[in-house]
């Protein structure tokens, strides 16, 4: 029989409407002690998302690892999901995650660099013998380039670097707890101002200099981005100024390219020349805030910049902007500007698709000026001395100065300030004291791991922007790595390809799978050249960012210029 229209059907289930009692709340429960510990470390405040990586560093530094209970407590304090915290913490190499019943790492970690310059200087022997020498309470792991290629082999005990190091030295440092960095002897604020420093910034802030005058000088000097891309600095400032505010600024201090040491060199000697150039850039584009991103492998730089930025602010030199120092966490991909911006925002360092470009939508989707450390370092000197001073330098038809980071088989490696356009022979003979005794030039990498490899017979090419592309190479950040007749070019190419495999962020298939497949193909006794070329083309054409696009360069260089070393 049909129910009467409008009558409410009554359910006679005696359990209907009752809720079963739950003996305890569902899910992982917050540990009150972990909450108190995290609160003590991060303090009071809004705890915005962009501070996530900074807070993870605080926990890692304090406890030597990131436990599940601390990450859960941090998620609760920041009002984030545990997944958001975990995905960021697990992305970066310098965070040690200890979940559930995992065993925490030993109290001391020694990272031994095994990138090309250190590999040539005996890194594998150190990695082989150090664990026994250091003892059971020390963890020894391989690590990528630490930015000290001129004094290889290099290792980091805790947060302290040891250069031209030995197994005995590292083992002794670990046992003695010698893990904290010592500050270098650098130019302080008072010393810089005594030499006339910040006079130009004050002239800008007081209206004695106009933005147009500064940009015109930079364009006349031909200053270009010195982080690798080489985009004209003045033109970049113009583009950002054209975008509607509010605007921001980011400084790319994540020089993770194997062979590159120049930013560390300048920041460790004259940080205020860089800071003045940065503050002039912020003034020029009216940036409300500047985010200075420094790689975690530079603990001394981070320490000194904290002190000197505080001094600059106390002196009233940064009233027009707010300076934020951000610490990387061990990810080469964050040298790519959009990946760096993602990291600044407290996320995984995954490169963005473009357009839009970061000058239009960068940090927090605001127009953002991104400059390399060295580019900003030159701004005060170029403006004070004039565009003609900088442009008057140059060799072999090129203009300007270049900071060449030279490592490998030369007598005097290091940062060499030389005229743009010097050849490899001129650089080695006139600036590096020649090749090591008993070594003859065999090959060189003109632009670090991704810049390709050229033979000694091609020693007359000017080393500068736009001169190396016809030969399948590029200058990049001018990281010049020198190989001799005692070295295997095949081994060098294999070393840098393993680096790319390790450092691929994994976002796009051509790079993630391509670098891994390339390493496997290069390890074979006989190379499948057709398959390798097909793989190289796929990576170059379809990768999202420059890592995957440039990763094939060492393979192609080896096949083209050193066929005698290709297994076949």
Overview of this structure, please?
- The protein has 568 residues and is α/β, with parallel strands linked by helices.
- The chain has 23 helices and 15 strands.
- The strands form four sheets. It has a five-stranded mixed beta sheet, with helices on both faces. A four-stranded mixed beta sheet has the order 4-3-5-6, with helices on one face.
- The longest helix is centred in the middle third of the chain and has 16 residues.
- It is globular, with a radius of gyration of 26 Å.
- The termini are far apart.
- The N terminus is likely disordered.
First-to-last CA distance:
87 Å
- Radius of gyration (CA) equals 26 Å
Order of neighbouring strands in the sheet with most strands: 12-11-15-13-14
Shape: globular
What is the share of helical residues?
40-55%
Please report the number of helical segments.
23
Largest sheet report: 5 strands, mixed
Number of strands: 15
The percent range for strand residues is 5-15%
Mean pLDDT figure = 94
Low-confidence spans:
1-11
Give the class from helix and strand content and strand pairing. alpha/beta
Write the layout of secondary structure elements.
Elements lengths: L31 H11 L9 H12 L2 E2 H11 L3 H8 L7 E2 L9 E6 L2 H5 L2 H12 L3 E6 L10 E4 L2 E4 L3 H10 L12 H6 L4 H8 L4 H11 L11 H10 L4 E7 L8 H8 L1 H15 L1 E8 L4 H16 L7 E6 L9 H8 L23 E5 H13 L1 H5 L9 E8 L5 E6 L4 H8 L9 E5 L8 E2 L23 E6 L4 H15 L5 H14 L6 H14 L3 H5 L2 H9 L7
Parallel strand pairs: 1-2, 3-4, 7-8, 7-10, 8-9, 11-15
Antiparallel strand pairs: 3-5, 5-6, 11-12, 13-14, 13-15
């Amino acid at each position: 029989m049909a129910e009467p229209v409008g009558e409410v059907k009554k359910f006679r289930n005696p359990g209907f409407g009752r809720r079963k009692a739950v003996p305890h709340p569902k899910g992982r429960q917050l540990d009150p002690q972990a909450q108190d510990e995290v609160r003590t470390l991060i303090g009071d405040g809004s705890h915005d998302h962009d501070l996530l990586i900074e807070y993870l560093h605080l926990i890692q530094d304090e406890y030597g690892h990131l436990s599940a209970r601390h990450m859960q407590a941090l998620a609760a304090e920041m009002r984030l999901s545990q997944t958001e915290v975990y995905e960021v913490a697990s992305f970066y190499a310098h965070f040690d995650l200890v979940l559930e019943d995992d065993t925490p790492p030993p109290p001391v970690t020694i990272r031994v660099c095994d990138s090309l310059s250190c590999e040539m200087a005996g890194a594998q022997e150190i990695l082989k013998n150090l664990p026994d020498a250091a003892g059971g309470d020390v963890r020894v792991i391989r690590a990528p380039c630490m930015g000290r290629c001129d004094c290889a082999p290099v290792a980091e005990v805790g947060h302290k670097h040891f250069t031209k190091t030995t197994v005995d030295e590292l083992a002794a440092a670990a046992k003695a707890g010698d893990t904290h960095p010592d500050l270098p002897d650098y130019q302080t604020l008072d010393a810089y101002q005594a030499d006339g420093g910040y006079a130009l910034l004050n002239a800008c802030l007081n209206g004695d200099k106009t933005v147009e005058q500064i940009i015109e000088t930079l364009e006349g000097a031909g200053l270009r981005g010195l982080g690798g891309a080489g985009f004209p600095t003045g033109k970049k400032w113009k583009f950002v100024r054209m975008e509607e505010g509010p605007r921001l600024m980011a400084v790319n201090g994540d020089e993770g390219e194997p062979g590159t040491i120049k930013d560390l060199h300048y920041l460790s000697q004259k940080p205020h020349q860089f800071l003045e150039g940065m503050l002039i850039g912020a003034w020029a584009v009216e940036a409300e805030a500047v985010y200075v991103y420094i790689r975690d492998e530079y603990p001394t730089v981070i320490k000194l910049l904290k002190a000197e930025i505080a001094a600059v602010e106390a002196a009233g030199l940064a009233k027009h902007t707010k300076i934020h120092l951000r610490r990387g966490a061990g990810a080469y991909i964050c040298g790519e500007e959009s990946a760096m911006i993602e990291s600044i925002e407290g996320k995984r360092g995954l490169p963005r698709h473009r357009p839009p470009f970061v000058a239009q939508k960068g940090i927090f989707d605001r127009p953002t000026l991104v400059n390399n450390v060295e580019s900003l370092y030159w701004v005060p000197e170029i403006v004070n001395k004039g565009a003609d001073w900088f442009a008057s330098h140059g060799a072999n038809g090129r203009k300007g100065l270049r900071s060449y980071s030279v490592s490998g088989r030369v007598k005097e490696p290091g940062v060499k300030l030389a005229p743009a356009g010097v050849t490899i022979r001129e650089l080695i003979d006139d600036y590096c004291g020649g090749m090591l005794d008993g070594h003859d030039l065999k090959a060189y990498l003109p632009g670090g791991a991704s810049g390709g490899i050229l033979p000694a017979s091609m020693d007359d090419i000017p080393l500068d922007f736009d001169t190396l592309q016809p030969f399948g190479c590029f200058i990049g950040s001018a990281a010049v790595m020198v190989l001799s007749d005692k070295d295997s070019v095949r081994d060098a190419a294999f070393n840098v390809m393993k680096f790319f495999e390790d450092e691929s962020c994994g976002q796009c298939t051509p790079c993630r799978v391509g670098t891994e497949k390339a390493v496997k193909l290069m390890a074979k006794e006989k190379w499948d050249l057709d398959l390798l070329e097909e793989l190289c083309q796929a990576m170059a054409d379809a990768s999202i960012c420059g890592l995957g696009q440039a990763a094939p360069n060492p393979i192609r260089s080896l096949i083209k210029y050193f066929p005698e070393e290709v297994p076949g």
